[in-house]
């Protein structure tokens, strides 16, 4: 992109209904938000358990700022690994049933750092076509041979594994797909990883806090195994920020010594770790949050059953309504906004061309009435 080309590139995006603009929130994250001066009932965030603005998390973080200050001040390996972070890593490891865990600044950073630590030139990575962009970027950055298989197509994956000459192999998948809400066949993937001597890298950004009674996909599918590397983000259901990787003690020691997105970055604010610790307690204790989401999912499916809008098969809080055209999805999102409801229109390149969608994201922060209000608005915009 040359300086004189940006203008026409932006115009081209606008012409394809793909120009992104950020809505500005003037309130905390939650089911009801103020955006650009207007109040909305929102089905847009990944705050699935409704914890992002929970009083207990606010209090934990405020108190921890008193104890630990604000800035990390240094990279973790120099002088930026704090006691509260060590405590959070130990709690996270135990929470998902692994020997050890390592906190990263974000899920994006974790995916880049871990994949490039495990595979390099001459190795091979195998990735589901619907994987999150950060996994793809990690695979590309690793310089390993990068093979993508059709979504959840185990036969194609097996063919690719059978054909590879690479000595070190890594299969990378989302546990729950971020734009579809469906799940990877994890037990079958682990069998393939064993048969073909590969790592299984599991990105549980959308399963942590929900699957496995909140403890994530490893617990849900009993996947503890030396070949499995587990990553979950802490800015979605956990309501805070950051991410962690869990596995064997050796694996974590290796990442501390090799993951460039861990080594060459300033430690995140230590107070964040205190909020993460508090969040783990709530994820564990507040089982009603997961029950309420399940009720919301049932209500949404029941309410749309006899309409022209169809949902995907998803038991996660991610409930996309596939519309197809970019223009049509923008129009529907706009009509919902006019009724005070915020549902994001997701377009390419986030999703494949021709599969633009309303990504309804349900949360334990929503009440039954909120979901009824969404249904009424959806029915009125399609009638
Ligand atoms: C959100 C997300 C990430 C990135 O996590 P951040 O902490 O937001 O950087 C990685 N993988 C998946 C599947 C995600 O949905």
From TrEMBL:
UniProt-annotated binding residues for substrate: 20, 132, 350
Residue numbers bearing the N6-(pyridoxal phosphate)lysine modification: 236
Residue ranges annotated for the Aminotransferase class I/classII large domain, each copy included: 39-378
Residues involved in pyridoxal 5'-phosphate binding: 107-108, 178, 206, 233
InterPro entries: Aminotransferase_I/II_large, AON_synthase_class-II, AONS_Archaea/Proteobacteria, AONS_Proteobacteria, PyrdxlP-dep_Trfase, PyrdxlP-dep_Trfase_major, PyrdxlP-dep_Trfase_small
Catalytic activity: 6-carboxyhexanoyl-[ACP] + L-alanine + H(+) = (8S)-8-amino-7-oxononanoate + holo-[ACP] + CO2
Keywords associated with the record: Acyltransferase, Biotin biosynthesis, Pyridoxal phosphate, Transferase
Domain of life: Bacteria
GO molecular function: 8-amino-7-oxononanoate synthase activity
Enzyme class, broadest EC rank: transferase
Pathway, per record: Cofactor biosynthesis; biotin biosynthesis
Function recorded in the entry: Catalyzes the decarboxylative condensation of pimeloyl-[acyl-carrier protein] and L-alanine to produce 8-amino-7-oxononanoate (AON), [acyl-carrier protein], and carbon dioxide.
Known partners and oligomeric status: Homodimer.
Record family assignment: Belongs to the class-II pyridoxal-phosphate-dependent aminotransferase family. BioF subfamily.
Protein's name in the database: 8-amino-7-oxononanoate synthase
Native species: Vogesella oryzagri
């Amino acid at each position: 992109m040359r300086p004189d080309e940006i203008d026409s590139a932006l115009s081209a995006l606008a012409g394809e209904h793909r120009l992104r603009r950020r809505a500005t929130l003037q309130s905390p994250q939650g089911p009801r938000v103020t955006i650009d001066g207007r109040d909305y009932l929102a089905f847009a965030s990944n705050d699935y358990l409704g914890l992002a603005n929970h009083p207990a998390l606010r209090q934990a973080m405020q108190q921890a700022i008193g104890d630990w200050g604000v800035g990390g001040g240094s990279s973790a390996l120099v002088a930026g690994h704090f006691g509260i972070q060590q405590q959070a890593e130990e709690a996270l490891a135990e929470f998902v049933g692994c020997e050890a865990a390592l906190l990263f600044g974000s899920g994006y950073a974790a995916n880049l750092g871990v994949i490039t630590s495990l595979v390099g030139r001459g190795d091979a990575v195998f990735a589901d076509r619907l994987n999150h962009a950060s996994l793809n970027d990690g695979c590309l950055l690793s310089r390993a041979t990068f093979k993508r298989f059709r979504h959840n197509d185990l036969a194609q994956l097996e063919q690719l594994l059978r054909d590879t000459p690479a000595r070190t192999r890594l299969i990378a998948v989302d546990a729950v797909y971020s734009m579809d809400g469906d799940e990877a066949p994890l037990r079958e993937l682990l069998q393939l990883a064993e048969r073909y001597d590969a790592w299984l890298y599991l990105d549980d950004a959308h399963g942590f806090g929900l699957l496995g009674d909140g403890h994530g996909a490893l617990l849900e599918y009993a996947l503890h195994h030396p070949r499995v590397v587990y990553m979950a983000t802490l800015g979605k259901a956990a309501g805070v920020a950051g991410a962690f990787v869990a596995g064997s003690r050796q694996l974590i020691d290796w990442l501390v010594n090799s993951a460039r997105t861990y080594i060459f970055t300033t430690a995140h604010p230590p107070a964040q770790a205190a909020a993460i610790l508090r969040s783990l307690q709530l994820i564990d204790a507040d089982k009603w949050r997961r029950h309420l989401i399940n009720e919301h999912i049932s209500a949404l499916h029941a309410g749309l059953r006899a309409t022209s809008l169809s949902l995907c098969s998803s038991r996660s809080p991610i409930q996309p309504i596939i519309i197809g055209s970019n223009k049509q999805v923008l129009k529907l999102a706009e009509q919902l906004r006019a009724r005070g409801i915020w549902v994001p229109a997701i377009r390419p390149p986030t999703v494949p061309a021709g599969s633009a969608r309303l990504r309804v994201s349900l949360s334990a922060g929503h009440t039954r009435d909120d979901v009824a209000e969404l249904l009424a608005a959806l029915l009125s915009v399609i009638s």
